[in-house]
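hiii, so i know i said id send this last week but things got crazy w the move. better late than never?? heres the sequnce for the chain we talked about at the cafe, plus the structure i predicted for it. fair warning i was half asleep when i ran it
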Amino acid sequence: MFKKKIKCKKLFFILLIYTLSHIFLAHNSFYLNYLNPLFWLIFIILFYSPDKNILKKKYLNQTLIIAIIFFIIYITTGFMLGFTNTYYNHSLINIFQNIVKVILPICGIEIMRYQLIKNNETYIIRALITFIIIISEINFKALFLSHNIIFFQYIVSIIIPLIGQNLLFTYLSLNSHYEIPIIISLFQEVPTLLLTFIPYRNWFINGSFTLIKLALIYYLYKYFIFHVNLTFLSLRSRHT
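okay and structure toks below
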């Protein structure tokens, strides 16, 4: 228990340092391309520990199915709303660099979230951890330098979905495993890096689609987790 508390304090301190650095360096290309991925690579090496969650395989299978379904829906919207070019360079080197700088932070943040959430039983601490992670992902420079209309659009299309996503991922981390939010995030982010054309979505469509998707994922997992736990408990009762 004492070792867990020490580890939690270290993780919380690392999260605070990362959040502060990300707020001030979010527009620095050297930080985004090299320092941030390197930071999360070192973090994963030092703090990753296999978690023998016997229900993990069931959750992973369900997550892959859900992620694929939403990806198909995402692509299908392009045939209704049209497609647009991505702003990423699609040379092999740039694809690799973009994937690395997306995948490592996603994996690192979700491993950190999982360990902090699982080892803190108070709702206030869990809420604080979620709040800090949300703060770390907000682009404050873009938020405060925009005029009124852009500010409103940024809130609707980015901030509100970001809050919803982090609340969902905290719920999933608490009830399942860190690999679940990672898979959902990767299916959401990586296709944009790989595809030359992506479905067109304006700020309103983007915010609405994301919120609907998050709500559906929440209710699907609430159903899955409830029924998987019931099955697990019934199997345990049979063997005792």
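btw The longest strand covers residues 83-85. thought thatd interest u
miss u guys!!
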